[in-house]
Amino acid sequence: MRLPINYQIAATYLSSKLKQTIVAVLGVTFGISMYVFMNSFMSGVNLAQNRLAFSTLAHVRIYNDRPADRSDLVSRVYPAGTIANIRNSKVIKYTDGIKNSSEIIHYLHTIPIVETVAPEVNINVFFKNVGNKVNGTLSGVDVANEDQLFRMSRLMEQGKWKDLAFRPDGIIVGAELAKSLSLKVDDNLNILTADGVSHTYKVIGIFRTNLSSIDKTKAYLSITATRQLLAENQDYVTDIQVNVIDFKLANQLVHELAPVLSYKVESWSMANAQLEAGSNLRDVIAVAVSLTILIVAGFGIYNIMLMTINEKIREIAILKAMGFSGFDIRRIFLTMSSVIGLVGGFIGMGLGYIVSRLVNQVPFNVAGLATLPMDYDPRDYTLAFTFGLITTFVAGYFPSRKASRVDPVTIIRG
Amino acid sequence: MERPTILQVDNIIKYFYEPEKFQVLKDISFSARKGEFLALVGKSGSGKSTLLYVLSTMDTDYAGRLSINGEPLTGKTQNELSAFRNQHIGFVFQFHYLLPEFTVLENIMIPALKLKRLSRQEIEHKAYMHLETLDLKDQALKSASKLSGGQQQRAAIARALINDPSIIMGDEPTGNLDSKNSQTVFDIFREIVTQGDQTIIAVTHDEDFAANCDRVLELSDGRLLPHS
To answer: What is the ipTM, given to two decimal places?
Structure first.
């Protein structure tokens, strides 16, 4: 009761029509809690998807791209109009893989945002188990770094990832691939390379990433064994996989490396535009749905404020007669709507948190998840609160302007 | 001793534009002195209420000059006029127009809380004094909507008096009351002017009320009749 008179009047109006006030507050509460929940859920999904994607995808990949198409060399040298007859032209790849890989790896380690560097030798091969033939990718890896990058040891269904380092004859295969070739641990698996080299390895482990395209087609060898298989030198590498401290910094690293290295430097988002598109679309949907709800709540407040003002139009006239200015009247009604927004906002953030917690408990056994994913980012909460306040302010502004323009003479004289 | 002029009206002209252009007030000039009790009478449609609302500063759509307490008010902004009304003018209408959600005491205190000249305790003390003189002290903490018609009108008078205005304006202040309550309201008004600091201008139909005033201004077809 020690508030300035304008706020006192606003407080009295709010408390005397408690039911109406509660309805208005509930509208905002619902809008804000939905905003919090939708955005938490969507960013939870995005995070889960990123986690899943980064279980097989490095932030940045460096590799030797195909050389540009140079089949029409004649026109570069001879004037236009020269008739040339070249048949069956070929693109010649001068270098295979990455030269001086150890130098590049050393350089990568000096960049502060780089976390892990893992060299790989990737080749396309046929996996053969007697009659069954499946084509896929054979990855020769640096066992310790690969584990750091993709946490391979956690993905193992059978066998130990680390054994790969000590077993030049050992191979670790994807779970689906093992199934389609009827392979078990300790079985033999024959590899046939594109160059026609055939070699038999012993299955020492089976992994599962939950990405079926990987599980169906991939197998791991140690990098040394792969170089031997290809008869390549000890510096031979086809890909260098790099993780940075935060996946959002991947493009920064690309910009730093691309001018220095003569190889293709590609970030995860370039290679997988659909991942980013998917997460952006989900964000748009979340914001659209929750803003719609907030706007509906805003119309509710607008309506209630207009009703209140029509009901109290004589009182507004008398307040003006007694010396309240249009500004005072506007402040009274804006205070009312702001209080509705603030109270609804705080309750809404709480309710949003509770709903998020509850949904986070719902079992969801797909792709390595146990429950529905959820993210608890304070930014979502502050944004929801801010949007709620803006909505209620706008919804209160127009009715309050109407109230401030009430002409006391016409109302009092009737 | 001649008492000072409190209200000065010069050549007020006002038109209504709806439904068609019509001159309601035709060149009205008069003045009121401090401590005077004036009645504004006239037939329905004579323009007496319209004149009162021009004097009240709420209606600013007129030609001519208006000054209260020597302060020219014509041409001031709405916000300046609100502040002026708050301090210098008290209103009593035909209906009490108390705010039903507030207690009688709060209703009376509102204009003073707006003015902020006194502390809350002082305002409350003053409101109680007015309630006491108007015989409403027992009703102070009741909701304004719970009072009888006569009590409500007395509470409205207390509200008009709280800021010690120079002028109290009444629009049919007894129009909705029975004769006993009308007499009470008239006696209160008489008491106020007797103290000599405040002027009352009231629009009225009530012939007894008008007859007992210090001066009667009669309007007819928008003109002030010469005898007044």
So the answer is: 0.89
